[in-house]
Amino acid sequence: MSRLIPDAEIDALRSAVDNSIVADNIIHLADFVVEKYEYARGRPLASSVRDTAIVEIKRTLWEFMDRVRHERKLFLRELFVIADEAVAEAMQQ
After folding, report:
1. What average pLDDT does the segment 60-64 reach?
2. Does the residue 7 lie in any domain?
3. What would you report as the CA-atom Rg of the chain, rounded to the nearest whole angstrom?
4. According to the model, what pLDDT value does residue 42 have?
5. Cys-Cys with 80: which of 5, 14, 46, 70 at CB 3.0–4.6 Å?
6. How far lies 25's CA from each of 22, 32, 45, 66, 80, in Å?
7. 11 is a domain residue
8. Is 1 a residue whose pLDDT tops 50?
9. Whole-number Å distance between alpha carbons of 54 and 46
10. Are 10 and 72 in contact (CB under 8 A)?
11. Is residue 72 part of a domain?
12. b/e per residue, 2-24, with b = 16+ CB within 10 A?
């Protein structure tokens, strides 16, 4: 069996992740973490520092999500390979 799985087949599988929910969660998480930091320090961050921190948190979390999407694609590709191998084994019996 061929181990080459077209990207179109993988991309056609539905994702269990809703990016609009992820975006909302990232925004909420960024605000929460900054507020937590401000609370722990006992004073608010300067507006420019707060804005920079939120932008950096969002950027970092979206980079993480990109890695997760890539790992999902690798995982799905492996599922296709395993399924191909199962068919080949079934045909040999």
Report:
1. 95
2. no
3. 21
4. 97
5. 5
6. 5, 10, 22, 15, 31
7. no
8. no
9. 12
10. no
11. yes
12. eeebeeeebeeeeeeeeeeeeee
From CA 44, how far away is CA 26, in angstroms rounded?
21
- Does 6 reside within a domain? no
Total domains in the fold of the chain? 1
CB distance 84 to 77 below 8 Å: no
pLDDT of 92 reads 92
What six digits make up the tokens of 24?
Answer: 């909302």
7 or 86: whose pLDDT is higher?
86
pLDDT score for 4:
65
DSSP secondary structure letter of residue 9: H
Structure tokens at 86: 């199962």
Q: Which parts of the chain fold into alpha helices (H)?
A: 7-12, 19-41, 47-92
| Identity of residue 63 | E
